Automatic annotation (TrEMBL):
The chain crosses the membrane at residues 15-36, 71-96, 117-145, 157-180, 187-205, 235-255. Keywords: Membrane, Transmembrane, Transmembrane helix. This is ABC transporter permease subunit. It comes from Fusibacter bizertensis. It comes from the Bacteria.
Length: 265
């Protein structure tokens, strides 16, 4: 418990900054929607001139973005990206920072097994992404309600946040694995950011042409279709199972590598 509380306190400032950034993105997105809705311009007709691949890549082709729920599903892609970066960075840093901060000798000289350390850090990480997820949920519902006659679409947005949590968990455990494998925090965070951005661009690329549709199987950003989750209130069970399985594998591998690692003090 002491390790969990220590990690929560140590990362409180970072969590607040990330949460404020997410709130700002949601606010900016809803302000853009207000601008569209009050402009009097037929946005759907204007977008018909764009290439179909581009429309599909950003989820515009299958929804009416003149409605608040349709616009939110399109903009949700960017909420998901920030949540993924936050999760993977947190995982990479929390595992490797003891060596970076030269506190490994203090922590591991105590009668605490490495298993307890990694589990405590993982619990702190899950709490961290849950808070970030909750901030995203509350901000989204409030902003949607302000532009939807008081209806914040709580049920639909909550289901989207559940889907988002499994993606966050995937990247959190991936960050743990990178932090345990790579020698320095700088290497771990660089690799983590690169993987997130790489898989994000794969998700966009997979929609640009039917010839590269198979790429969607290599990116967690395509695990769920936000339109299906929002409008049909359905989450893809196979995708959920794959994300949970991968997360479990990542955390086990991270522990094995962490256990065998010679820690520099």
């Amino acid at each position: 418990m002491n390790i969990i509380l220590r990690e929560l306190r140590a990362n409180m400032k970072s969590l607040i900054i990330w949460s404020v950034a997410q709130m700002f993105i949601i606010l900016a997105g809803m302000m853009k929607y207000v601008g569209f809705s009050e402009s009097g311009v037929d946005i759907n007709s204007m977008l018909e001139g764009y290439p179909e691949g581009i429309m599909k890549a950003f989820g515009i082709s299958s929804v009416d973005i003149t409605t608040v729920d349709g616009f939110y599903t399109v903009f949700f892609l960017y909420f998901m990206l920030l949540a993924a970066i936050h999760a993977v960075m947190f995982g990479a840093v929390i595992v490797s920072k003891e060596e970076r901060d030269h506190s490994a000798d203090f922590l591991f000289s105590k009668p605490v097994k490495r298993f307890k350390v990694i589990v405590s850090k993982f619990i702190a990480g899950v709490f961290n992404i849950l808070v970030f997820n909750l901030v995203t949920l509350i901000t989204s519902v409030v902003m949607i309600a302000q532009n939807n006659g008081g209806d914040g679409l709580l049920g639909q947005v909550t289901l989207l946040m559940i889907a988002l949590f499994f993606i966050q968990l995937f990247f959190l455990t991936l960050g743990f694995l990178l932090g345990a494998i790579l020698k320095t925090t700088k290497l771990a965070t660089s690799a983590a950011t690169g993987i997130v951005l790489g898989t994000f661009f794969l998700s966009i690329l997979s929609d640009l042409s039917d010839k590269v549709t198979f790429l969607k199987y290599f990116t967690p950003f395509k695990a769920y279709n936000s339109v299906t989750v929002m409008f049909d209130q359905q989450m893809a069970l196979p995708s959920t199972l794959v994300l949970i399985t991968c997360s479990g594998i990542f955390i086990v591998l991270a522990y094995q590598r962490f256990y065998a690692r010679d820690l520099n003090t």
